[in-house]
Amino acid sequence: MPTVLQGARVFTGDQVLEGHAVVIEDGTVRAVVPQAEAPTGATVHTLPGDTLLAPGFVDVQVNGAGGVLFNDTPTEEAALAIAAAMRTCGTTGLLPTFITDDAARMREACEAAIAATARPGGGVLGIHLEGPFISRERAGVHVPSFIRTPDPRDLDYLTALPRRFAAHGGRVLMTLAPECVDDATLRRLVTSGVVLSAGHTAATSERTSQALNAGVRGFTHLFNAMPPVMNRQPGPVAAALTHDDAWCGVIADGVHVHADNLRLLLKVKPPGKVFLVTDAMPPVGTPVTSFTLQGRTILRRHGRLETEDGTLAGADIDLTAAVRHCVHALGVPLEEALRMASLHPATFMGLHGHRGRIAPGHRADLVLLMPDLSVHSTWVGGQPKSKASH
């Protein structure tokens, strides 16, 4: 029997509709129709009239949430717990992110993510490997002793991963520094199905452009963990701005990137090429004031997460807060801010055929937003999963 959600305005991913109903069956959207044309005999849920039903958010960079850190506990249960914690904040699908660590631990995380991706309704969409093939010069909080260049064993394992994740509809995202990996290796990873993103890099703009031509698809938390644009050394940021096809993930929390840099990015890039990430850490969704990351204490203070010496260590934000920041601080139209949290990251990862829109054939992964852009409820695969206000 189908389920009908009605009463709220509906943002389809393309436009906002008034007086329409969303028909859900077998975990997918069957139709979006005028309310008077909703099927009879369905289970009807009438939503508050001042709310907005939108596609559920997709976050491709989540280190942890709800007190759980994937690097600390690279298990299926941890990945699912992180997804459950972020669901109350509007995120219905995410990539648990595993930062630079030793090879055995990285493989453990990949195996756990495969198992979590196979869990129906779990909200895990694959894995994001942030490192270990990154620049020591731009390591940030990544442990330098774990940074390395890829060897044949690494490549054999990594190039087999996309097929294994794809069996469950999942994807593999890898952040690497273009100056640390040659073009032949980049092409091999891309051919296997790994989505490559440049990050934690000190590459020149020329080297970054070469890597984009070799298949690197986008940039991880653009502006962060990379050098600033200089007059004779424009670096990776200039390559991101000047390559129309390159995707740019950004942390829009008012801490990681100055508002004028985000406005510049949105002005320069073609529509649809900028998307939101959280880079979230375990404190998100909890009241805790500190946690441990690979043996170092990370403090929640001054509206940010940082080491004792002040180095940023991930972010204390969820995607709903990032959407609010885009709308209120940057002047981004609400519809585009919502796309930046749903359709655009889904498209970046090749998931746009069934995520990021409320349209027939798409998964019924939905978020219901209050007028102040806080979360009222979420659905994953058509099943209500939370009722919260954030």
UniProtKB/TrEMBL annotation:
Coiled coil: none annotated. Zn(2+) binds at E130, H200, H221. The keyword Manganese does not apply. It is an enzyme of class 3 (hydrolase). Substrate binds at V141, N224, A225, R232, H256, L312, A313, G314. Residues 53-383 form the Amidohydrolase-related domain. It holds the Pfam family NagA_N. One of its GO terms (molecular function) is metal ion binding. It comes from Corallococcus interemptor. Its cofactor is a divalent metal cation. Binds 1 divalent metal cation per subunit. The keyword Metal-binding applies. Its EC number is 3.5.1.25. One of its GO terms (biological process) is N-acetylglucosamine catabolic process. Gene3D superfamilies: Metal-dependent hydrolases, Urease, subunit C, domain 1. The active site is at D279. Belongs to the metallo-dependent hydrolases superfamily. NagA family. SUPFAM superfamilies: Composite domain of metallo-dependent hydrolases, Metallo-dependent hydrolases. Keywords: Carbohydrate metabolism, Hydrolase, Metal-binding. This is N-acetylglucosamine-6-phosphate deacetylase.
